[in-house]
Design a protein that fits this description.
Helix 1 runs parallel beside helix 4, helix 3 crosses helix 4 and helix 3 packs parallel to helix 5. This protein has one domain. The chain has 227 residues and is of the alpha/beta class. The protein has 7 helices and 6 strands; from the N terminus they run βαβαααβααβββα.
Length: 227
C-alpha cells in the first residue's frame, strides 16, 4: 500500500453567512463571532499539529469542506438599490443568478472575515482546502464564484497570493481517494434538496448563469427566510 503524502480533515455544514438575514441584530452578530472564533481556533490547532509519516516528518492536511460551508441560501441581505417593496428581490431575497451569488459571497466574507483569514493562514502553513458543493452552497459551481472565493481568501495572505489560490480546490460532487475515503454532501439523496439534474445544477440553456433551484430553494426564499 502506498503511504499517503497528506492526511485528511473533513468539516461540513458550517453555514457561514446563515445568520445574515435582516435585521442583522445582536443575536446574529453573536452567533457569527462564536462561529468565527471556534473555526479559527480549530484551524490554528490543526495547522500546527499535523500527523507525522513513517519518516517522522509532518504531513500536510487536505481540509475537505463537505458542503454547506458557505450559506448562500439563507443569506438574506440585498443591495441598497433594491429597496422598493414592489421589487421581487427586495421582498423575497436575491435570485439564483451567478451575479447575485458573487454579491452574497463578498458580504459573507466581510462579515466572517476571521474565518476566511483563518483559512488563509491554514493554507499558508502548507495545507490545502477543497470545497465540495452542497445545496446551500451550490453557488460554488459557478466558475466566477470560485475565482472570487480564491481571491477573497488569498487577499489575507502575508506572502504569495498565487500560492494560496493554487491550494484551494473545488468539487461539484465528491472527493474520492481510492482505498481511503469518499466524501459527498447528503442533499443528493433527498428529493426536496437535490437538483433537477443532480450533477449539473446550472442549466446550459439558461440565458444567464443561474442555478436550477431545488424545492427547498423556493421554499426558503419565498417563505422560510421571511419568517
Amino acid at each position: 500500500m502506498i503511504t499517503p503524502t497528506h492526511d485528511l480533515l473533513v468539516l461540513g455544514d458550517l453555514h457561514l453567512g446563515g445568520s445574515l438575514r435582516p435585521p442583522v441584530d445582536f443575536k446574529a452578530r453573536r452567533e457569527m463571532v462564536r462561529l468565527d472564533r471556534e473555526l479559527a481556533a480549530f484551524l490554528r490547532h490543526q495547522a500546527t499539529h499535523p500527523n507525522r509519516g513513517p519518516d517522522g516528518r509532518p504531513r500536510p492536511w487536505t481540509l475537505v469542506l463537505n458542503g454547506d460551508c458557505i450559506d448562500f441560501l439563507h443569506m438574506g441581505l440585498v443591495p441598497a438599490e433594491l429597496g422598493g417593496a414592489e421589487d421581487d428581490e427586495a421582498m423575497y431575497g436575491l435570485s439564483f443568478d451567478e451575479s447575485r451569488s458573487r454579491w452574497k459571497l463578498a458580504w459573507i466574507v466581510a462579515y466572517h472575515r476571521r474565518s476566511f483569514e483563518a483559512l488563509c493562514r491554514f493554507i499558508e502553513a502548507g495545507h490545502r482546502v477543497v470545497f465540495i458543493a452542497g445545496n446551500h452552497d451550490a453557488d460554488l459551481c459557478f466558475k466566477a464564484v470560485q475565482v472570487d472565493l480564491r481571491g477573497h481568501i488569498a487577499a489575507f495572505a502575508k506572502g504569495d497570493r498565487r500560492a494560496v489560490m493554487a491550494r484551494i480546490g473545488f468539487s461539484d460532487w465528491f472527493v474520492h481517494e481510492p482505498g481511503r475515503a469518499w466524501f459527498e454532501h447528503g442533499h443528493r439523496f433527498d428529493a426536496y434538496n437535490t437538483f433537477p439534474d443532480p450533477l449539473t445544477p446550472i442549466p446550459a440553456e439558461a440565458p444567464v448563469p443561474r442555478l436550477a433551484p431545488t424545492f427547498s430553494h423556493w421554499g426558503l426564499r419565498f417563505f422560510a427566510n421571511r419568517v
